[in-house]
Amino acid sequence: HASPEQPFNLGGSDVADTQSGVTDLKVEDGIAIVTVNNPPVNALGAAVRDGVAARMREAAADPATEAVVLICAGRTFFAGADITEFGKPPKGIPLGELVTLIEDMPKPVVAAIHGTALGGGLEMALGCHYRVAVPSARVGLPEVKLGILPGAGGTQRLPRIVGVERALEMITSGEHVPAPKAKEAGLIDELAPEEGLRQAALDFAKRLVAEGKGPRKVRDLSDKVEAARGKPEVFADFAKANARRFRGFEAPAACIEAVKAAVELPFEQGIAKERDLFLKLVAGTQSKAQRYVFFAEREVRKIPDLPDDTPTLPVNSVGIIGAGTMGGGIAMNFLNAGIPVTIVEMKQEALDRGLSVIRKNYEASAAKGRLKPEDVEKRMSLITGTLDFEALSTPDLVIEAVYENMDIKKDVFRRLDKIAKPGAILASNTSYLNVDEIASVTSRPESVIGMHFFSPANVMKLLEVVRAEKASKEVVATAVKLAPKIGKIGVLVGVCYGFVGNRMLAERQREANRLVEEGAMPWDVDRVLYEFGLPMGPFAMSDLAGLDIGWSRETSKGETLREKLCEMDRRGQKTGAGFYDYDANRKATPSPIVEQMVLDHSKQKGITRRQISDAEILERLIYPMINEGAKILEEGKAIRASDIDMVWINGYGWPVYRGGPMFYADTVGLENVLARMEQWEREIGPEFRPSDLLRRKVEAGETFTGAA
Ligand code: 3HC
Q1: What is the pTM assigned to this prediction?
Q2: Cβ(139) – ligand 1 distance below 6 Å
Q3: Which of 153, 356, 413, 545 is most buried (most C-beta within 10 Å)?
Q4: How are strands ordered across the β-sheet holding 116-118?
Q5: Could you tell me the distance, in angstroms and rounded to a whole number, from the CA of residue 560 to the centre of ligand 1?
Q6: Which one GO biological process term can you cite for this protein (predicted)?
């Protein structure tokens, strides 16, 4: 480390001038312009770091150069450290040292920012003495989303510019801050015209020289952090206020500790603290999981037999059948993306109700400041409600979201087949049913697929794109590409009962019910899953959704706990009671009535209840899901293990820091999962039979994801 007292060191023996072509230096009017070109996002890999270091040294040594501009070619300023290098043996100059090298330059250095300056990218800019950006640029420290913290001085430099509170917010949320806002915060010195960044930065540098302004090191600033000095409550309060958002994650607490160090320790010691915290996090399982998720999210778009240049169909208008909770939620995704929607209902009342729910949702967002008031009307103006099925003759894509029943769905598709224009994509939002069978009633099965949204459909990020057997490549590629345009993570899945998500969920539900019969209470099961990191357990979830979905007094057999609860009119939150009792604020407490029911239920079934440990509850709920996931892979119903993990993270709230069920299986060891499944197969029944893939993986000493 070069310290501020040391003179600038031109040597730096470990820094090779790679001549790799990723960096370039030109001198114009006494200003050295260092340009980096490392597509696609100018990640700061070893070659880039060494190249920049070499160019900086050249510029420092060149007597004809009075200032330096650091700029990136292509679509963006540095998007951060090269995440693929994490966990590999270190190469080249470390990023933190490069930032210090820039900060210690004897001539002013100006960062010229476009696109996104993220993570290590913003840290590079913070090492520069001045920052110029185009208005469309965004800056941020998103490391927390990868389970780490800014490890190249970001936690020490950012608070020195924007103050402690803003820095805490930015570093623990990872938000991307638009350049104009960053300028208000003092993070950007000047906004450049959108098309003239290079020239603006050059002019800025020349002005510095003309005005005799030298390097201005962020590390030397202290006025912004003074207010928080000797006030540990600033940090404790921040942690407390955000406890819900941080639940289960290790990185946010470390981020807070690092910023605290920026306030309380001299710069060099703060950097050392940041380094320690970074190294601990980057070696941990959470960070591994979160980095895996970063790449898995991007991997879902890659379909082996659908290369990127597969032709797609235009989707400029959408029809939706059914204005219920699902239909309305689905519609909102398209309205948000500016795509007009025609929504069809059978009865005026249902249509009016559906439209008013959509409006209310938008108004609620506007009230919370998440949506501009004028956007409520803008979005509502894109939706047309009608009772006329014929209106579905014009949309490019029609999504059916009617009652989950094969006969009804077939009927809808028969009618749709007669009306929809040729080439329109016909999609079903079924959660379980066979899409091939639905397609078979039409004259154009090549146009039929499943698009399975998750409730609440305007919130949950998952979209299961169900590839029906006869669906054309264009149709499948269109649906996959459409997902990100409407803010979804689209995972391609095959036709099978419940597809990927609900098929695995059924395993968990079966075991949850069985555990309650064997000795656990519903709230024990829920608590174990909540502590694992899920938003709620299956019984709390059932209470929320309503226990009487698909139940009627006439057909009730009164056999399951759920049926018994419904018969007692304990139908979930809406009736103030279900598996739990609810107070006026919908706060749940374990119910003594349910406790007695559970005990009686076990007795009736001749089961002697036993004490079941939390560890056993967790394994019994999750290992069968993993086993089912392996079967799904084996049958080719999902393309890769990471796609299954994307389903669970984005559709069911599986904690990101555990990387999804398949990644989690890798972390606990597949041999352990297999051993339990074999044990339960012997002790309980054939539903636990281990999948062949799981066996093969264990025999070969392989993992599902190769990432854990
Ligand atoms: N390292 C390595 N590869 C990266 C990368 C990175 N930091 N950022 C993006 N990529 C890759 C992606 O995997 C993708 O590869 P693919 O085409 O093979 O799938 C390609 O670059 C393009 O990325 P996107 O598809 O995400 O492109 P977008 O235009 O949609 O988004 C972006 C661009 C906003 C920059 C987005 O890629 C992003 O958020 N990147 C990560 C930013 C980040 O987290 N930076 C912090 C890194 S950690 C760090 O800096 C530690 C330091 O403090 C020490």
Answers
A1: 0.93
A2: no
A3: 153
A4: 116-118, 138-140, 177-178
A5: 49
A6: fatty acid beta-oxidation
